[in-house]
Structures are given as C-alpha cells and as structure tokens.
C-alpha cells in the first residue's frame, strides 16, 4: 500500500470547515486505500507563543475531533508529534542542508513574521517548514493530503529529500502533494477571497465544527455575498456564493450543478438558510462523538500512546539510516 502522512496544528479550540474540507475529509478517505499516518503537530504549535495547559487540552480536543470525523485507529496511525522524538531529531539534520535564503522565501513565514514584527518572531517560526519536512520524510510518505496553503512547504520537502538523497545516498521517498482542487481553499465568510483561517482577524468569517449551530447559522446569514442575485458557481466573479455552494455540496453530498438548478429563481437568503441547516446536521453527531472521546481522557491518551508506538517504529528506522548516512557515531 502506498503511504500518506499529514498533520494538523492544535492551535484552536475547534477545527474549522477549511480544515475539514481541505484536509481531514481526505484523510478519512485515504485510510481505506493507503497506509496512513496522521499527527497532531504540537511541536509546531509553540512557534508563536502559547499557554501550556491550553496546548495540552487542545491536543486532546484535536485528536478527539479527528476520531469523531472518522479516523479509525484500526485503519490508520493517529499520534501526537511530541511523543515521537525522531521528528525534531531529523529536523536538525535537514536544517543543516536548508539554505538560509531558501527558508526565508517561505510565504507563510514571511506573512506571519510580518504580522508579529521580525524582532518578535521566533527562530522556531523560521524553521517550522523544516520540521514539517521531517514529519513527512520520516514516514517515507508517497503523498501528503493538505490544502492549497501547504503547497510551498511540500515543495521545500521534496527539494530537501532530493538534496539529501544526492548528497548521502538514496534515503527518502519524494512525497507528492495530494490537494483536491474544489476544496483546496475554503474562504472566509467575511472576506471571500482570503482563506478561512484560525488566525483570521474576525471570528465571524470561520465556521467552527464545535460551535453551537445557532452561532454558525448567524455567521452564515451575515456572510458576504456578491453583487447580482443569481445563485451560480463562478469563483472568479462570485467568490462568496461559490464558497457557500462548495461547502453545501460536499457536506450534503450533492453536486454543485444540481444545487444551482435547485436554487434557480431563489435568493441568497434561501441558500444561506439551507446551508445553515446542512451545517447543523453535519456537526451534531461530530460534536457528540468528540464529547464522548473527551469524557474518557485516559482511554484517549492510551489510544494516542499506541499510535505513537506504531509511528515510532517507522520513524526510528528512517532516522537510524539517516544518522548512519551522515556519519554520526554508531548508535549504542
Ligand atoms: P494547519 O493546522 O494550519 O491546517 C490543517 C490542514 O487544513 C488545511 N486548511 C485548509 N484547506 C482548505 N481551505 C482552508 N481555508 C484551509 N485552512 C487550512 C491545511 O492546508 C492543512 O492541510 N503546516 C501544517 C501542519 C503540518 C503538516 C505537517 C501538514 C505540520 N506537519 C506534515 C502536512 C504534513 C499546518 O499548519 O496545517
């Protein structure tokens, strides 16, 4: 079976629709056909300041949501990144074959450090994509299911893998991005050309999976739509309406064409009202299952520890090879 790996940051109290539609939905499908590794990347979550107790709680909430959304520990390996020490160990080696200029060109780093002020940004924020490359390469992943915003990080990962292989001998599989076009960039309800994002300036723009459906309905009602009144799918000219149609289509499992026909002669208000109902239907069982996992944290932690053991078996085999190839002293 080909292998996939992906990760998600525990930096919010809930995942949002972008996380689900852009990434986690594919994770669930790929566990049927691939040898799948998924991690909650808590090491990545400390690059811009955090609260310790909140981080630990959010890692659990993240894992609980992933299980509630359909990851099955019998079909995939689900773990928390910090429980597999090989990740930062490989990251160090990769950082030594990454160019300073190359890392400086990462758009997410540039955006985030510009927001925080260069002097206040951590070195961890700068090396973040190298740790991400380590996450992927340790598992020899063939493909990495993510949203569009991760494409540049995956290009860096491929470059580093190729460079290491050339310098030290063939060690890493070159991973391909697995990006589903239609849902690769779910946009902000208030700003329909920007991606829906945890760090977005206004919470009104994001639909959170664990939010009260009444609250999500309100956000959807006040979503920015486009001029005109026709409900058509046209991302370039009608980004707001198209985004709502995309979310509706995937959650209700109805093709966009069919929705467009069904909404002929109706208005934006009708679309928003129905979408709010579809979202409510979708999140209800997710919220119940998430809560059930969180009600038994000991069981959840045990499940994650088992995942970490499985992950570590694979990661340590790769790391041993890497250490040998770069000429580190024989391990004891
Ligand atoms: P993170 O935690 O920001 O997001 C998790 C996943 O959700 C996708 N995503 C979106 N997709 C479509 N539309 C959106 N509006 C949207 N917002 C987020 C992201 O593309 C991502 O797939 N650097 C990664 C975490 C990471 C990782 C890895 C991913 C660490 N190590 C190894 C893959 C492989 C990140 O910050 O994702």
From TrEMBL:
Superkingdom of origin: Bacteria
Residues annotated as binding L-tryptophan: 135
Residues bound to ATP: 9-11, 18-19, 147-149, 186, 195-199
'KMSKS' region, short sequence motif: residues: 195-199
The protein's Enzyme Commission number: 6.1.1.2
Annotated localization: Cytoplasm
Main localisation: cytoplasm
GO molecular function: ligase activity
InterPro entries per the UniProt record, alphabetical: aa-tRNA-synth_I_CS, aa-tRNA-synth_Ic, Rossmann-like_a/b/a_fold, Trp-tRNA-ligase, Trp-tRNA-ligase_bac-type, Trp-tRNA_synthetase
Keyword terms of this UniProt record: Aminoacyl-tRNA synthetase, ATP-binding, Cytoplasm, Ligase, Nucleotide-binding, Protein biosynthesis
Gene3D superfamilies registered for this protein in UniProt: HUPs, Tyrosyl-Transfer RNA Synthetase
Catalytic function, reaction form: tRNA(Trp) + L-tryptophan + ATP = L-tryptophyl-tRNA(Trp) + AMP + diphosphate + H(+)
Subunit structure: Homodimer.
Family classification: Belongs to the class-I aminoacyl-tRNA synthetase family.
PANTHER family per record: TRYPTOPHAN--TRNA LIGASE, MITOCHONDRIAL
Described function: Catalyzes the attachment of tryptophan to tRNA(Trp).
Official protein name in the record: Tryptophan--tRNA ligase
Gene source species: Asanoa iriomotensis
